[in-house]
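The freezer alarm interrupted the setup, so I double-checked each line after restarting. Inputs confirmed:
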Amino acid sequence: MTSPLVDIRGLEKRFDLSGSFLEQITFKGGRFQRKQEAVHAINGVDLQVQKGEALCVVGESGCGKSTVARTVMGLLSPSAGEVHYGGQRIDNLKGGDVLPYRRKMQMIFQNPYASLNPRMTIQQTLEEPIHFHRPELARSEVREKVQEVMQSVGIDPEWGSRFGHEFSGGQRQRIAIARALAVDPEFIVADEPISALDVSIQAQVLNLLMEAQETRNLTYLFITHDLAVVEHFGTRVAVMYLGRVCELAETKTLFAEPRHPYTQALLSAIPRLEDDRPNYIRLQGEVPTPVNLPSGCVFHGRCPYANERCRQEIPRLIVTDGGSQVACHAVEEGRL
Amino acid sequence: MTTATLSRWNRFRESFLWYSFKRDKVAIVSSIVLLLMVFAAVFAPLFAPTDPYDLAQIDIMNSELPPVGMSGADAAFPLGTDAQGRDMLSTILYGTRVSLLIGFGAVVLQAALGILFGLLAGYLGGRVDSILMRIADVQLSFSTLMVAIIVGAVFKASFGNLMFGEIAIYMLIFIIGVAEWPQIARTVRASVLAEKKKEYVDAAKVMGFRTNRIMFRHILPNTLSPIFVIATVQIANAIISEAALSFLGLGMPETQPSLGSLIKSGFDYIQSGSWWITLIPGLVLVVLVLVINLLGDWLRDVMNPRLYKG
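Predicted 3D structure, all chains:
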């Protein structure tokens, strides 16, 4: 295997809940206590994104998939762990050193109604990044570039003088994609780019993303909770649960033969037309709070195969004979 | 170029702002009155029969002449004269100019400080936010008038009356501007806090834009509507503050009277029957402040009903 384009190593992100020093102090049972709490959004995620692939990250709400995306893009700084791009560590770069990576890495956001500046015309929105990253280009060249990008996402270049609010959700998302493509990136993080759109528009935007991948040699990190999209779009899939990756596999392998108990439950929940009486796996209980993480495997409280080892030892991702990577003691021990 | 400006004009013509303006009689009347007053004040030298700053044109024998229509009036002085024999009409026109200049100047200063500190506090957050907002709290806990009286008195004592007359206008702009910036800073901070969570700000960060560019080019334009509303009301407030200071004798000197110092100079003669010296500038002041406040109210209703602080 060649070296990955993006390498995420042991990434952790905690969000502090307890506030300033004074707010942490409580008076309990006759003495002062200092209490610190944090939401453990990501707890040690290792992911490698290979060049040219579309790595999908799936999981239920609150499992940390968006936090992974934002940390990779540098919108959040990791509490621990490293992000490497093309062999270079980028999460600790400062000031101007990040700029070359800003051009190579772009992001598409979830909500097309909020991701366009309401006071800027489409032309301004698209021209600004090009001006900024390629100051050597003349005005006419920038304009040509904007036209080319607008055409490539299916937006009429004539509409450049309009504002974002004059467009529909699907058109806005196309414009947001155009903005990301305008600086000719290699790698795009898409944070649930179609979940705010109508179902009829979702396919169009998805096809647009795939087309862009083909013509521009893009690599995607695609965050979604929609398994149908994953099956259609992803090269590989990472399933996340409570801030950890529990299974990572080729899309086909994962859908044909899910190994991790959580993945199995997740996939069995996909409604199918032929199912008259769906036979999905019912998990007991609820997702534990990310403030007080369970010890050992984060899934042990709901896992039908959990034993004493699962309660104590955090499972690592291991490669199975099917080629997928699974973080599960039961799979490792052959119990499952 | 022409097409761009034309489309901007068309955009304005089609906007909700223009639509609601056309339907609001109070707003139309207020803005007409305000425009007339501003026009007359700005071009005061063209309209005023005499130049009240020119001592050679003043004749003390003309002092305290009543307005036209009363016995003893002189047709050369339609609104009468003050105690020094200056034509009231000219003095009021020049005085309105001074008052408006101080009002606008103070608000420009307020807005500059308020926008800068509000943006920094809202966008950077954390310690910067705490420090700036505590400064604003301290600032607000002093009454504007009290600060102005102290600073004015110190200025007056240290520069002497003659020198003070020359710098009075700048000093008033400075005092009122500095004393009231927290109003705008708080408004800006509140809307920056709401705006900075939106994804277009994240998109700008992902592009690698610098903090300054994101604050001023991306966030600031989206916080302008509440700033407009506050600024309009603040112009009226600044004019009132200036009038109050002048009335207390700490504002504009009588040689370059503002509306406030005109009212004050006439106040000494009100018992002796020369009511017009106080009353007419007072009326002008009331009308000026009223129309600005009415316009501010209208703007608040149209632009941002929720973000206005009372």
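Quick read of the result. Residues 144-195 of chain B form the longest helix (52 residues).
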